[in-house]
Amino acid sequence: MVTSVDGRLALLAVLPLSFIVITALKQFLAKRQHRRYLPPGPSPLPLLGNILSIDTKQPWATYTQWGAVYGDLISARILDQELVVINSQQVAQALLVKRSRVYSDRPYLATLEPFGWSYNMGFARYGDEWRLSRRIWHQTFRADSALKFRPMQIRRAHEMIVNLMDDPRHYYAHAATFSSSVMMSAVYDYETSARDDPLVLLVVHAIELVVGMLTPERAMILKKFPF
What we know:
This protein is globular. By secondary structure, the chain is mainly alpha-helical. It has helices spanning about 1-35, 60-70, 90-95, 100-105, 130-140, 150-165, 170-190, 200-210, 215-225, and strands at about 75-80, 80-85. The longest helix is centred in the N-terminal third of the chain and has 33 residues, at about 1-35.
């Protein structure tokens, strides 16, 4: 009787593990079959995919290396999310510009809302709201209309050159000041100081903190493990 009970307990203990293994195997086989219709790319591991092979801080470096092996259009998998990477400007224009109605949508990024970037048009899903935002954007920033910002841009460029000549060691800070000051002048009509403007420093710091978490490689981890 004791032996029979112990056997049943052992069976109950093994069943959940067996279920996990079978489920993982079925997903792995389904993914392999699905990958026949995707561009070439590195072979993924079961469950994990290619996440261990990707530099999450500089994923473009990994994709450049893979591009040299698999071509300008490659596929990979991060956990259970398929990823197609474009490694060529020519391919990007052919897909994202000439076929924009097909490929203009953006992927869901689980890090947008927690980090306060869900309002940003650059990350919005393709739809009526995005098309309305684009029409509003083009009213002010299309090529012929944006010419009114040219004098301000030239003045800011001159300030950056002076900063580079005075303090060439902080090249990144001067470039960030230039780009941020142009944006804040055009959007908010805010006149920044030539160097060390407090609002510019705040914007640069915020971007440094947030952008690293908005990459698909990290967003997919939060999507899979929201806790």
